[in-house]
Amino acid sequence: MASITMTINGTTVTTEPGTTILEAAQSAGIHIPTLCHHPALPPVGACRVCLVEAEGSGKLLTSCTTPAAEGMSVRTHSPRVLEARRFVVEMILLRHPLDCFSCPSNGNCELQDIAYELGIEESSFAEEGDTCRDHPLEEDNPYFVRDLNKCILCGRCIRACDSLARYHAVDFHNRGIHTMVHPPADRTLEESDCTFCGQCVQLCPVGALAEKPSRGRGRPWELHPVTTVCPYCGVGCELEIQVNSKTGRIANVTSDYGSPTSLNRGRTCVKGRFAWQFVHSGERLTTPLVRRDGELREASWEEALETAAAGLQRIKSDHGPDSLGFFSSARCTNEENYLMQRLAREVVGTNNIDHCAHL
Ligand code: SF4
Ligand code: SF4
Ligand code: SF4
Ligand code: FES
Question: What string of DSSP letters covers 201-215?
Answer without folding.
Answer: HHH-SSTTEEESTTT
